[in-house]
User: What shape does this take?
Amino acid sequence: RGHEEMSTEPKSFQISSDIHRYLLEHGGAPDALGQRLIDETRELGDVSIMQIAPEQGAFMQLLAGLIGARRAIEVGTFTGFSALCLARGMGEGSELICCDTSEEWTRVGQPYWQEAGVADRIDLRIGPAIETLKAIPEDASFDLAFIDADKPSYVAYGEELLRLIRPGGLILVDNVLWFGTVADSGNQEERTLQIRAFNDWATAHPRCENVMLPVGDGLTLIRVR
Assistant: This one.
């Protein structure tokens, strides 16, 4: 596979394009089906930046398998690449509830879920994610969650997911470095403040055991106590 076929430019601001290509060649690259979904998403224009990086998808797929996740929740599905990765990692007979407000964007990914043979694992729920989460009973006991949605609601999503994820389960949270702006005290832009507020909340919460990784635009792993 040539370098020019290896997905998009890196989303991680810490690494060069050459290093990004190298890491994709050594375990982070999507397969042909995943690459086609990435390519179709790129055709949407600037909004395609909302798609997770390919190496992040590979990492999340591996994590889902490692913890033996059978039930999971995704908050923010966009065009479905992250859902594709999670559903593949979870395996047959699993359930992934996907929360999104856009029928247009999620429609892009659905044929790829079908082609990958994972559509029967994915329960797409269109509507405000906070309402979807609140409607799930507390005894549902999920293994894994992924947050990649509207930044003002991150803490609210976190609170709901702490109610739903079993002790020892994982919550993955995207965009926690926000292109490095979270570390710039002079940056008081609204979404930067919202991400900082979530990062502070997760760090202080007694039920959260965290590690923040420079994967993509920053990925926090929260192990629920």
Notes: The mean pLDDT is 94.
